[in-house]
Amino acid sequence: MSSEPLVFSANHIVSDIVIKFPKASDYFRDHKIDFCCGGKRPLVDAVQERGLDIDEVLEALHHLAANHAGLNEDNEAMNRFVEMDSQSLIQYIVSKHHDYLRAELPEVYKNVARVNRVHGEHDLHLGQLYVLYTKLKDELLEHTTNEEEQIFPRMVAQDQSIETSSHQELYDSIQLLEDEHDQAGNILKEIRAITNDFTPPANACTTYRITYERLAELERMTFEHVHLENNILFPRFQG
């Protein structure tokens, strides 16, 4: 039995579109439409901010949905996250995304530092990249530790009706986490801008190219990570 075709409108919330149609995240990322940190707003607002035409965006999304062979599989994968209990979702986020950040952030830092040291005198933006990336690395590592040690245990306890803190205290803590997500998202936007969408110079060495590839992967993983938290996990504790 074939499923009903997906239909999107200008007033659909961006994050809801990605939950309903995960492949849309690729389109949004390519067109610099924020679906994670700034995803809780109507599509038309996000599109207008980027100076795009809403009718063209809707047409592209409908075309993508109609021609995406893996639509059912993608939807099933996203539904698994939506249907997971909070403890299981938290465990997934930690094992898939937090562990990735702890392993990857220091290694990419070495590459960024090396490329800046070797090529920074000629490619002046590399100095700015080094400063931005260092800030991002430090903030994300502190952020994930705080989530695991302070916030996630309180979520699990509340989900299991074990009172460890007030609902308002947890709500306020989540608001701070979302603010930190916004800050990380803004840094990533700056990094994308100064690296020309992670496009290395034509004469870039192998390390230079690998650094940009790993930065692009870090951005993709961070957007997925923040989407799971902001748009699936956190709303369970914000009602």
Automatic annotation (TrEMBL):
Residue intervals of the Hemerythrin-like domain: 92-236
GO molecular function: metal ion binding
GO cellular component assignments: cytoplasm
UniProt-listed Pfam families: Hemerythrin, ScdA_N
Superkingdom: Bacteria
Keyword match Cytoplasm: yes
Species whose genome carries this gene: Paenibacillus glacialis
Keywords assigned by UniProt, alphabetized: Cytoplasm, Iron, Metal-binding
Protein name, per record: Hemerythrin-like domain-containing protein
